[in-house]
Write a structure and sequence with these properties.
Length: about 140
């Protein structure tokens, strides 16, 4: 492709698209303002979740274990993406790709066993022995 043809492409389709998006967003916002319902009841400003009345403050401190489980989920979820990518290209990768995915899954299993032995996956009162082990040193 000619490099000068890239820069000489007309910009009017992008400008028309941008203006159409602005028009649609503005139109939807204005229409929802005029056609939407307005309530002034006492319960209008209160939080509502699944039909259960809220109790207490929304600023509740969560235990650090919730965040640990979330991080484990993200880490192992990303590994699933890599394994899926390998599964798509398994025929092109051949035996070399097979051995590489075995090493990859082996490392994942070792990490999972390490976390399990460490107590990071325990939810009981004796969970997370890391802090108690480090305090004794």
């Amino acid at each position: 492709m000619n490099p000068s043809a890239i820069y000489s492409a007309p910009l009017w389709p992008i400008i028309v698209y941008f203006l159409a998006v602005i028009f649609v967003v503005t139109g939807i916002t204005v229409l929802s303002y005029f056609l939407g319902q307005r309530h002034k009841e006492g319960a209008t400003g209160e939080p509502y979740e699944s039909g259960i009345a809220s109790t207490g403050s929304a600023r509740v401190r969560f235990d650090v274990r919730f965040y640990l489980v979330a991080m484990f989920f993200v880490i192992f979820d990303l590994e699933t993406v890599f394994i899926f990518g390998w599964a798509v290209a398994v025929r092109e990768l051949g035996w070399t790709g097979y051995y590489e995915i075995l090493v990859f899954i082996g490392i994942l299993v070792m990490v999972l066993v390490y976390l399990w032995r460490l107590g990071a996956l325990d939810w009981g009162p004796t969970g997370l022995r890391v802090s108690s082990d480090r305090q004794e040193e």
